[in-house]
Amino acid sequence: MTKLPRRKFLIMAAGAAALPTLSHAAWAQTYPLRPVTLIVFVPAGGSPDISARFVGQSLSQRLGQSVVIENRPGAGGSLALQAVARAPADGYTLLLVAVPHAINVTLHEKSNVNVTHDVVPVAGLYTGTFVMVVSPSLPVKTVPEFIAYAKANPGKVNMTSSGAGNLSHLAGELFKAMTGIEVVHVPYKGAVLAHAGLMAGEVHVMFDAMTSALPNIRSGRLRALAVTTATRSEALADIPTVAEAVPGFAVSSWLGIGAPVGTPGEIVDKLNKEINAVLADPAIKARFAALSSEPLVVSPADFGKFIGAEAEKWGKVIRATKIKPR
């Protein structure tokens, strides 16, 4: 075997070590060369799916390749997360990340996948408003009146949700903890049934997504007491925030984009840049406003911190209330 001079060997070794870096940079410059799949954790037609589709359409135009929506509903978002976590880390399989993934860090802590371990944060999409609504038959019109009524009737007020362990449930549990009231949780299978229960007076209060509750609020079939975001909503400009009566209370739904761990940083940065450009489009802003949502324009690092803070926040609520997955 011919021996290489030491100097030539070292030069070749240094060049070989640099190859991965060079290939990643070149990869990012040419990415994407084929369609990108965005896996969505809800069925087609749901609000997150609709948002994914119109963002995906605009992102396709910027990337020069189709963004294909693939729906993988089930297990509170875990099936979609598993599909992405097991996909090649090449930027061609992305995840629509949302609150359920942050909640599941604690709710399904024994799961073999975890949004904080198995997904690289890429970009935010939006934050959405929740609203505290009550049955019109309940004799309260403000948050302080509701708190006083609940304290005067401990254990006699029913709080509903669209499912145990989801954001509508946890928002109510957070409100209970911060106000010291005693209410009974009565979950329904979905917002439509929960609204029917509210209107019939079977249950009394609910924290629900603005987009879901707004039609019944405007028709007078539900009464809005407050919105859950830090500032008032344009959709219900005369309705105060919960925090005006309960300082520090804040609940938002949100969406973003993630990729498998190991996805090259150059590709993550490119996607972040293009997604943030999509979010700056006035047409996209208008579509989000129609959903009572605001664009979430952040860096990958800041989106990662955001997800971590949400996981920690809801983890505390889950542990304190001993909520178990169903």
How does this model look, in words?
The chain is of the alpha/beta class and 326 residues long. The protein has 2 domains: 35-127 and 252-321, D-Maltodextrin-Binding Protein, domain 2; 129-244, 3-Layer(aba) Sandwich (D-Maltodextrin-Binding Protein, domain 2), CATH 3.40.190. The chain is built from 12 helices and 10 strands. β5, α7 (167-179) and β6 form a beta-alpha-beta unit. α2 packs across α10 (265-279) and α7 (167-179) packs across α12 (300-321). It starts with 5 loop residues before the first helix and ends in a 5-residue tail after the last helix. 42% of the residues are buried.
Mean pLDDT score: 91
User: What is the approximate shape?
Assistant: globular
CATH superfamily of the largest domain: Bordetella uptake gene, domain 1
Number of helices in the DSSP assignment: 12
Helix and strand element order: HEHEHEHHEHEHEHEHEEHHEH
Radius of gyration: 23 Å
Biggest sheet character: 10 strands, mixed
Share of helix, binned: 40-55%
CATH topology annotation of the largest domain: D-Maltodextrin-Binding Protein, domain 2
Number of domains: 2
| Name of the CATH first level of the largest domain | Alpha Beta
Structural class: alpha/beta
What would you say the CATH architecture of the largest domain is? 3-Layer(aba) Sandwich
- Poorly predicted ranges: 1-19
Could you tell me how far the N terminus lies from the C terminus, measured between alpha carbons in angstroms? 65 Å
Number of strands: 10
Residue share in β-strands: 15-25%
Oligomer: single chain
